[in-house]
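ok so I'm stuck.
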Amino acid sequence: MLRNSKSVSRLDILDWLKDPAAHFPPQRHVDLTENGVTVRAVAVKLGVSRKVAGTHLGMLTRLGLLRTRRIRHRTYYRRDEIRIAEVARMFEKGW
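replied:
not stuck anymore, here's the structure
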């Protein structure tokens, strides 16, 4: 099955956020594993603009696959493992 580049990018983001410390540079005041990563970090990793990265992160957040946390003036994104497991179970059941 062929996937468009947007779905591949979103899957990549979800995969990277399983272990953000392995895929993103450390942040001075934030623990990547606990708090997540910024739109800017994802944009750099994907090689796209912040707007494009923000669109991907927004879609994943609206689907409930990511959670956000505001720290200072930035929003950080991290996986919602419970929701991801729920979605995986739906697909396993033949949803």
